[in-house]
Amino acid sequence: MTSTPHSTLPRRVVVTGATGKLGRAVVTHLRDLGVDVLAVDRAGGRDPRDIEGEFMLVDLTDYGQVVDALSGSVDEHARPVDAVVHLAAIPQPGLHSNAVTFANNSSSTYNIFAAARALGIHTVVWASSETVLGLPFDTPPPYAPVDEEYAPRPESTYSLNKTLEEEMARHFCRWDPELVAIGLRFSNVMEVQDYAQFPAFDDDPALRRWNLWGYIDARDGAQAVERALAYDVPGAEVFIIANADTVMSRSSASLMAQEFPGVEVRRELGEHETLLAIDKARRVLGYDPRHSWRDHV
Ligand SMILES: NC(=O)c1ccc[n+]([C@@H]2O[C@H](COP(=O)([O-])OP(=O)(O)OC[C@H]3O[C@@H](n4cnc5c(N)ncnc54)[C@H](O)[C@@H]3O)[C@@H](O)[C@H]2O)c1
């Protein structure tokens, strides 16, 4: 492969959670741009030789393994690392006990930030979550579209941990004034094959009320990661990352009126406009989602 990375992108990047739903799209996208990617995951016991491209099995709850992965000093992977994209996590509430989710996700993210600091890596892009916005909205959102301007409202242990990770990122940035720590509050991750189920959502608006009918195409999620890697202003920032439309055929305004009649809608909404505002990501990162489920069904 002879292509060179986009000039503003880091040369070599470690991507965690690389065999997961979002990780696969991110690794492909960055490699297509010519970025030198070391993909890591614990990968459920799979043989690393079966995984395409440069890959290392790493359990992120073990600090020594994280330091090794990020140090660029492990035998076949011995090249300096410029940035980390940290996507590995137990990705939703209820898959494991709360304590297991908290222990796995919090220690993994602490180890990533701590190892990056120890090794002088100044760019960390990591997956926060839409859940910190108050999902499943049993308590309605303060206004819509929701944005990054109100304090997190975690309603699960998974989300509590993402909230604490956002706070942790701010303190790592205080300790290292050169650190750029970008938390991407992804909506519900979708691949093209998932879109076949979308038309059925129309039957009952309550089905997807829990995340204001939002979603993120994994390829657009990968674009957001690319834009975040190119962002070079030190400090901790968070961005909502969703697609530009909802999962529904009926209008966004009518969904709000039916399911959240008391919630202030702060602007005139486009027909299918996302209720998870991506204005900040567009403005600051240049994020520009290209995909829609409507193109696939
Ligand atoms: N899926 C969603 O809808 C969604 C929404 C918002 C945010 N997120 C976040 O985005 C990220 C990626 O989610 P996904 O949907 O790709 O999930 P996924 O489960 O498909 O992938 C996550 C990967 O992380 C790996 N992992 C977990 N713990 C690990 C550990 N201790 N060490 C090494 N690897 C470990 C798993 O093996 C898995 O391959 C996660 O941080 C998740 O919390 C996901």
Automatic annotation (TrEMBL):
NAD-dependent epimerase/dehydratase domain mapped to chain residues? 13-190
* Signal sequence annotation: none
Taxonomic superkingdom: Bacteria
- Which Gene3D superfamilies does the record match to this protein? NAD(P)-binding Rossmann-like Domain
A Pfam family cross-referenced in the UniProt record is Epimerase
Q: Where are the transmembrane segments?
A: none
Name of the protein this chain belongs to: NAD(P)-dependent oxidoreductase
Which species does the entry assign this protein to? Knoellia koreensis
Q: What lineage does the source organism belong to?
A: Bacteria, Bacillati, Actinomycetota, Actinomycetes, Micrococcales
